[in-house]
Amino acid sequence: MLILECPYCGVKAEETELHAGGEAHLKRFGPGSSDSEFHDYLFMRENPKGVHFDRWRHINGCGKWFHAARCTMTLEVFGTYSAQTFEPPQDIRDAISAKRPDWTWREFK
Amino acid sequence: MKRYSVFAVAREALRYHSGWERAWRSPTPKRHYDVIIVGAGGHGLATAYYLGKNYGITNVAVIEKGWLGGGNTGRNTTIIRSNYLQDPSAAIYEKARSLYEDMSQDLNYNVMFSPRGVLMLAQTQHEIRGYQRTAHANALQGVETEFVSPQRVKEIVPIINLDGPRYPVLGALWQERGGTARHDAVAWGYARACSAMGMDIIQQCEVTGVRVENGRVAGVDTSKGPIDCDKLGMLVAGNASVLSEMAGFRLPMESVALQALVSEPIKPCMDVVVMANTVHGYMSQSDKGEMVIGGGTDGFNNYTQRGSFHHIEETVRALNETFPMVSRLKMLRQWGGIVDVTGDRSPIISKTPVDNIFVNCGWGTGGFKSIPGSGWGMAELMATGHSSLTEAFTIDRFKEGQFIDESVAAGVAH
């Protein structure tokens, strides 16, 4: 069972208290973008075997959205962080590098 | 290959069963094959089989990182039905269902296909309308289904509780020719037939890289060394994103865990498959007497082949409402498989940006029932470059907006 700490209210919540919201840090493409940008935004998803970033909502708690960094192979959680950011913060990246030195995810290393 | 028959059984009975041969060979890989299929599950082996049978292409290797049929082929709940809403899906699933009917004779291997009937319960007004629509669509597609009354449901499944505490049974979509088959036997039967045609099935051989030269596939690197090929088929379900990345293109899908469980064996009590999609659980009884139970997928990306416990709790709770008699059953074991889910819940069977690489994935929760149809279409696509069975399932359909929306017919919450 996945246990994530909500970065807003500090509650260590197990997954029935949370709602999974899919891939993190998607850049929205709308009017004015190219067809392939819009297609990738809507349908293409990172689906790595290893380090992954996704969005979660503390739905049966404070109700806020946040991000989690975790491993899809082991379900290990590297950390959770605020939704108010466009990329994983440095301390989260360091925490991942400490355990998975060669990790990559999109353009992040 | 020695044929299995009553005479073979009699012959072997007289000589202490010393004459049975291995069902398939375990060869070392050759340097080059015309076609390499990655993934020796049902879909991969079926594709290889129909390549040989329908198109005479037998210089084929099927490579598998684990053991044959050890992925989702050995992890599903063995349900076979074709009551899908959209024309392209109904066509391929109905092709599969009809191939299952004579598969045992075709492969000379008993896959224990049991056309016992599949009942999908309607437990809300919305679901009634949805299933009536499906029944009408199926009538136009030539797929035999029928919308039946609650009284008829009770006749078909006497152990059901029509007046459940939350959702009463208001009717059901009934496909009498659907049913179950033995999942392992499907993989084993295809493997035996492929091996008999001279194809190499190479187990415990993991693909570590895909070699592409001038936009065209040249071969694969594996844990047993490099192997060259003219054409490459990828049929690796939940691992399709990982493999496509090796070949340098991306797929619009995500991998999540789907779970199933079986109870202790009990005497025969239910001779059909029942799916209750509103309360969310489905159940059938195996020939051994175990109740085979399935439920929903997890909501997050996962490759661990185990799912979250609360889904099992939900599933069992749902079945307790629908079948009160199962409440005292002990559960024997539980397991998970990694299913690959696309945006419209329909598979991708397609050419790819790399010449001569073909991909067949995204079956999500509906892979087992489609095995022969998928293999039939995929073989045609790989051999001739076109298949009417698979043409709607291209990767490009997302860009074109030509979705094949089966989120309802898939019957499993994603």
TrEMBL record, chain A:
Pfam families: SoxD. It comes from the Bacteria. InterPro entries: SoxD, SoxD_sf. Gene3D superfamilies: Folate-binding superfamily. This is Sarcosine oxidase subunit delta. It comes from Parasedimentitalea denitrificans.
From TrEMBL, chain B:
This is Sarcosine oxidase subunit beta. It comes from Parasedimentitalea denitrificans. It holds the Pfam family DAO. It is found in: Cytoplasm. NCBIfam families: soxB (TIGR01373). The keyword Oxidoreductase applies. It catalyses: sarcosine + (6S)-5,6,7,8-tetrahydrofolate + O2 = (6R)-5,10-methylene-5,6,7,8-tetrahydrofolate + glycine + H2O2; sarcosine + O2 + H2O = formaldehyde + glycine + H2O2. Belongs to the SoxB family. InterPro entries: FAD-dep_OxRdtase (IPR006076), FAD/NAD-bd_sf (IPR036188), Rhodanese-like_dom (IPR001763), SoxB (IPR006278).
